[in-house]
From TrEMBL:
<keyword id="KW-0521">NADP</keyword>
<keyword id="KW-0119">Carbohydrate metabolism</keyword>
<dbReference type="InterPro" id="IPR001282">
    <property type="entry name" value="G6P_DH"/>
</dbReference>
<dbReference type="InterPro" id="IPR022674">
    <property type="entry name" value="G6P_DH_NAD-bd"/>
</dbReference>
<dbReference type="GO" id="GO:0009051">
    <property type="term" value="P:pentose-phosphate shunt, oxidative branch"/>
</dbReference>
<feature type="binding site">
    <location>
        <position position="227"/>
    </location>
    <ligand>
        <name>substrate</name>
    </ligand>
</feature>
<dbReference type="InterPro" id="IPR022675">
    <property type="entry name" value="G6P_DH_C"/>
</dbReference>
<protein>
    <recommendedName>
        <fullName>Glucose-6-phosphate 1-dehydrogenase</fullName>
        <ecNumber>1.1.1.49</ecNumber>
    </recommendedName>
</protein>
<keyword id="KW-0313">Glucose metabolism</keyword>
<feature type="binding site">
    <location>
        <position position="48"/>
    </location>
    <ligand>
        <name>NADP(+)</name>
    </ligand>
</feature>
<dbReference type="InterPro" id="IPR036291">
    <property type="entry name" value="NAD(P)-bd_dom_sf"/>
</dbReference>
<dbReference type="GO" id="GO:0050661">
    <property type="term" value="F:NADP binding"/>
</dbReference>
<comment type="pathway">
    <text>Carbohydrate degradation; pentose phosphate pathway; D-ribulose 5-phosphate from D-glucose 6-phosphate (oxidative stage): step 1/3.</text>
</comment>
<dbReference type="Pfam" id="PF02781">
    <property type="entry name" value="G6PD_C"/>
</dbReference>
<comment type="function">
    <text>Catalyzes the oxidation of glucose 6-phosphate to 6-phosphogluconolactone.</text>
</comment>
<feature type="binding site">
    <location>
        <position position="193"/>
    </location>
    <ligand>
        <name>substrate</name>
    </ligand>
</feature>
<feature type="binding site">
    <location>
        <begin position="91"/>
        <end position="92"/>
    </location>
    <ligand>
        <name>NADP(+)</name>
    </ligand>
</feature>
Length: 479
């Protein structure tokens, strides 16, 4: 933690949500336990049901005991944490209901000798509810542009940010009527993962890689985001979104920007986000003609039997997409992206494949044989690794090479308890660091790309693929 933090109140809309139970409450508890929270912070949970402060504290305590192993072994800190919890019943669509929240926030209650006036709002709610909540915060005088209130204001919004370009622009417009852009933190938990944050460090702090990081030396980039489970209880959501909107629009394109961005002017949030936005502006849009050779969509067998899924659904649960970044550095280099549900295993990784040397001296037939290309493999999850594949001489009389790997593993190299993505991103938001949050222009650029893709495949029937396979057979050409 940099410096001493001012006391503040964090308000969580959707306090009974699965995200709050599994991620937010445990992360905030751990930050407090590690000394990363101010002494007199407050947490106000917001929900529709009637509930007292004590009932809410009991609910959070039960969630912490279930999802945070450290809570059970630290009763004193758990008790102290629960005393910082409060509850406000709010009808999210009713502006008058927000007076209850305002009263709870602004009541002259001294907490540890200090009244909290700095406010952080966390929207752990369905995206369709976000515009009404933001508007009503403004009407209640709780927005970031409100001049009558002292202290700072911050808004954290979970993905998805809209359903398409039009809805994203409307959501951005509503948010910016109530909050300044420098008060808005659009969260994508992938950007809080250590291996993702390491991509920029790997590129720009190592002289042996960045000079080769361009079309002259790199043949292709492959990004894989594979999950070994289905949609679980998200049938209604998936019928509206599909995998392209759920994963590729955010996680996938954010990984692409990290690989393809130019060196920033400095490490300020906007300098880094400027370069990421430039990449998204450079991604070639899709047409009905181009998708025939650039896109394969699939649906796992049994998807149509899932709860809240139409029996004739054409929603994709798998996609393999070839992107092109039309700029000086990357012209002609394909970026292959494969993502899906119910695939063979859970893995997220990025493979950068380099071009072979002009002559291969060491193959079985001398120069006639093609070499095995060098690769850099960035493991994001579950393994957090960096591996480099290169050729080495096979022991023996002949001069023949075999591909070998050098591998760095985060867990083996760096001992001790690290920060999870939500620990990291919550701490960044508290400290006012927007580097790992998505700016509104990038949201809109990414939706322009996905809208062009969705419109170009409109009506296309996804190919069926077996559960726990690697997707449709026709996607094999994408790696």
């Amino acid at each position: 933690m940099s410096g001493t933090l001012d006391n503040f109140t964090i308000v969580i809309f959707g306090a009974s949500s699965d995200l709050a139970s599994r991620k937010l409450f445990p992360s905030i508890f751990q930050l407090a336990r590690w000394g990363h929270m101010p002494e007199s912070f407050r947490l106000i949970g917001v929900g529709r049901q009637e509930q007292s402060h004590e009932e809410f504290r009991a609910f959070v305590r039960s969630r912490l005991l279930e999802h945070s192993p450290e809570a059970a072994g630290d009763a004193a800190r758990l008790d102290a944490f629960c005393l910082r919890l409060f509850y406000a019943r709010v009808d999210l669509d009713d502006p008058a209901s927000y007076e209850v929240l305002r009263d709870e926030i602004m009541r002259e209650e001294k907490v540890g000798g200090s009244t909290c006036r700095n406010l952080m709002f966390y929207l752990s709610i369905p995206p369709s509810l976000a515009p009404a909540v933001v508007r009503n915060l403004g009407k209640a005088g709780l927005g970031g542009r409100e001049q009558s209130c002292t202290g700072w204001r911050k808004l954290i919004a979970e993905k998805p940010y809209g359903h398409d370009l039009e809805s994203a622009r409307e959501l951005n417009r509503v948010i910016n009527e109530v909050f300044e852009e420098n008060q808005v933190y659009r969260i994508d938990h992938y950007l809080g993962k250590e291996p993702v944050q390491n991509i920029m460090v790997f590129r720009f702090s190592n002289g042996i890689f960045e000079p080769l990081w361009n079309r002259q030396y790199i043949a292709q980039v492959q990004i894989t985001i594979a999950e070994d489970f289905g949609i679980r209880d998200r049938g209604a959501y998936y019928e509206e979104s599909g995998l392209l909107r759920d994963i590729i629009q955010n996680h996938g394109l954010q990984l692409l920007t990290a690989i393809a961005m130019e060196p920033p002017v400095d490490l300020s949030a906007d300098s880094i986000r400027d370069e990421k936005a430039k990449v998204l502006r450079s991604v070639r849009h899709f047409t009905p003609d181009s998708v025939r050779e650039s896109v394969v969509i699939g649906q796992y067998e049994g998807y149509r039997n899932e709860k809240n899924v139409a029996p004739d659904s054409k929603v994709e649960t798998f996609a393999a997409v070839k992107f092109h970044v039309d700029n000086w550095r990357w012209s002609g280099v394909p970026f292959y992206m494969k993502a899906g549900k119910n695939l063979a295993k859970r893995v997220t990784e990025i493979v950068i494949t380099f071009r072979c040397p002009p002559q291969n001296y060491y193959g079985p037939s001398g120069g006639a044989a093609c070499c095995t290309p060098n690769q850099v493999v960035l493991g994001i999850q579950p393994d957090e690794t960096v591996a480099i594949r290169f050729g080495a001489k096979r022991p023996g009389e002949q001069m023949i090479t075999d591909p070998v790997f050098m591998k760095f593993d985060y867990r083996d190299t760096f001992q001790g308890e690290g920060l999870t993505p939500y620990h990291r991103l919550l701490l960044d938001a508290i400290e006012g660091n927007q580097m790992n949050f998505i700016r509104k222009d990038s949201v809109e650029y990414s939706w322009e790309i996905i809208d062009s893709l969705k419109n170009s495949i409109d009506g296309q029937v996804p190919e069926q693929y077996p559960v726990h396979s690697w997707g449709p057979e026709s996607s094999r050409i994408y790696g």
